[in-house]
Design the sequence.
């Protein structure tokens, strides 16, 4: 009997996460742990996927919830072979605060992922993998980002502070932080395979859930047309690509995979000084030392 490998997937009950866990659960030799905000939906999904499916409550907007989730995984689950940081958030404004007082988009899309990764590093299987889900919006170009404004990088402490501004810009900037996180994690953990996966435009995902009801209704009506745009694809196709990244062979540490193909990330994302600063400030914000323990 072969060894069963474990993939922990955040944001597993909707959109890209849901389609991906279904594929992984159906892949021989793999099981999934669902990290979800809504436990009721998570239990229903776990029941549908099979008895070997794990489940843990996780709200990335709360650092306390992230710590509880990491402790539960370390105490109840076998070593994690692949950590898939899929959950993400886009809101219309950048003056909304998380449970810990940080700007909500930065808190969910970066700080929560940073803390979860740091806490689960000791529980990763030897030669494990961390996959972050990025976005072409970090490029800030019309071809890659569409109508999104360019990311605006600043001191990470400023990025973590709620203030008036565009929620879309905060989202694009958080996805630039995602690439910095992957690159710095790869530099600091040479024994772990680190990948950023950018699925392209996915109109059918739930990123618009915090828009007004009217905007959500309009977005739903436009989804079939948006999926025909260059750079757009269906959730199912993107899930197949993400599942391939999860189960496939190792590659270049810190690589950027766009729609299933390794590709360059934006020139701005290659700044090692920013990546180190983001790592160090993030460690301080979540109460960890910047240096990774040898344990």
Sequence:
């Amino acid at each position: 009997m072969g060894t069963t490998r474990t993939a922990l997937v955040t944001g597993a009950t909707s959109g890209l996460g849901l389609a991906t866990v279904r594929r992984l659960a159906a892949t021989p030799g793999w099981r999934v742990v669902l990290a979800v905000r809504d436990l009721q939906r998570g239990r229903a999904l776990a029941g549908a996927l099979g008895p070997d499916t794990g489940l843990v409550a996780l709200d990335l907007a709360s650092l306390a919830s992230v710590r509880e989730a990491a402790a539960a995984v370390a105490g109840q689950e076998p070593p994690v072979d692949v950590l898939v940081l899929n959950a993400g958030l886009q809101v219309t404004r950048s003056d909304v605060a998380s449970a810990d007082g940080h700007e909500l988009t930065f808190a969910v899309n970066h700080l929560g992922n940073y803390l979860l990764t740091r806490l689960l590093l000791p529980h990763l299987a030897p030669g494990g993998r961390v996959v972050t889900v990025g976005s072409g919006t970090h490029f800030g170009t019309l071809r890659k980002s569409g109508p999104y404004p360019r990311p605006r990088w600043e001191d990470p402490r400023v990025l973590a502070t709620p203030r008036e501004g565009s929620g879309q810009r905060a989202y694009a900037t958080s996805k630039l932080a995602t690439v910095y996180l992957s690159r710095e994690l790869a530099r600091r953990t040479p024994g772990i395979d680190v990948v950023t996966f950018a699925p392209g435009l996915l109109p059918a995902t739930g990123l618009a859930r915090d828009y007004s009801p009217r905007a959500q209704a309009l977005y739903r009506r436009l989804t079939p047309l948006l999926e025909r745009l260059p750079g757009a694809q269906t959730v199912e196709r993107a899930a197949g690509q993400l599942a391939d990244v999860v189960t496939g062979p190792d590659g270049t540490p810190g690589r950027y995979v766009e729609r299933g193909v390794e590709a360059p990330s934006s020139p701005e994302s290659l700044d090692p000084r920013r990546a180190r600063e983001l790592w160090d400030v993030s460690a301080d914000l979540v109460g960890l030392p910047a240096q990774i323990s040898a344990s």
